[in-house]
């Protein structure tokens, strides 16, 4: 059972006229409640060849290492979101260079978008959602203790591009894989 | 006034513990209702140098020309969304080549993501949300009757890249401009 955010009456799962998917439609005021995928924006921030990672203080994947990332907020651009998450989770100021990768995870209705950028100073500090923060050379990245597959894919693609001296824009799709990250 | 989608009780605008922005929080069950930007996905589909455009049968910008595009649905990838919108609005099958551009429009909480691809056949047909569909050479594009600024930016960047023989990934931010498209 679900309720209308506008009037509080119950909603019914119906295909609205002109649509082709069922939506929660208010039984009283007729308002159609669309649900859409959510965009998670993150950042690969570098300082002198080292990459900024955070160890998660929250579920899911508490205790595992991740790139600063989080749900995009209303009223910001995607690059704003990347800068904000890097400040909030890692206490670091980053100058964004470009979008780097987009990962579609259709089965959980998420899109992960990662930027790449340069830290302005080597300063960082764990935010409320991080247990600790660190700067890692490629060989020192905790590859077996990364939080999410999208983070691992993104770090691998980033380091491969960096070795070539040429950054592209990368696309991935992730499918259910209960045994893996 | 707003209501909880889980229990129908009234919500209150509050900053939840550990958060830093006000959210609609249920006065009865405590559920936090996050609102996030929505992702609109579109496609630049080409057939022998011509670009597929649709004339909008719906508001906003009814009667203006646009690229096939629409709100991303749960359960699909971004490339799925680009293919689906091209079928729904233009009746055309497209093979996706790559993501081409992302446009942040922070003041309306939208992200527009455009793919580029090749039509499998020259067949097209106006869908329910289109008055007509056509294939346009660059000089024949109705530049003064385009629907949205993001569409214009995207077409200009696409044609510039095509002339160079090298497609990049493009980022733009749009700000309020009431006098313009
Ligand atoms: Zn209602
Ligand atoms: Zn509630």
UniProtKB/TrEMBL annotation, chains A, B:
Its cofactor is Mg(2+). Residues 36-159 form the Nudix hydrolase domain. The keyword Hydrolase applies. Keywords: Hydrolase, Magnesium. Pfam families: NUDIX (PF00293), Zn_ribbon_Nudix (PF14803). This is NUDIX hydrolase. The keyword Magnesium applies. It comes from Azonexus hydrophilus. Belongs to the Nudix hydrolase family. One of its GO terms (molecular function) is hydrolase activity.
């Amino acid at each position: 059972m679900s309720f209308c955010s506008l009037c509080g009456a119950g909603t019914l799962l119906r295909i609205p006229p002109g649509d082709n998917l069922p939506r929660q439609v208010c039984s009283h005021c007729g308002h159609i409640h669309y649900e859409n995928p959510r965009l998670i924006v993150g950042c690969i921030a570098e300082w002198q060849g080292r990459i900024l990672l955070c160890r998660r203080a929250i579920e899911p994947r508490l205790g595992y290492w991740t790139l600063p990332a989080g749900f995009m907020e209303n009223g910001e651009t995607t690059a704003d979101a990347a800068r904000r998450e890097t400040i909030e989770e890692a206490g670091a100021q980053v100058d964004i260079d470009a979008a780097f990768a987009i990962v579609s995870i259709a089965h959980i209705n998420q899109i992960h978008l990662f930027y790449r950028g340069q830290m302005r100073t080597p300063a960082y500090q764990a935010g409320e959602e991080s247990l600790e923060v660190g700067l890692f050379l490629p060989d020192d990245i905790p590859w077996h203790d990364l939080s999410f597959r999208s983070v691992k894919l993104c770090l691998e693609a980033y380091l491969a591009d960096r070795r070539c001296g040429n950054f592209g824009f990368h696309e991935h799709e992730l499918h259910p894989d209960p045994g893996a990250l």
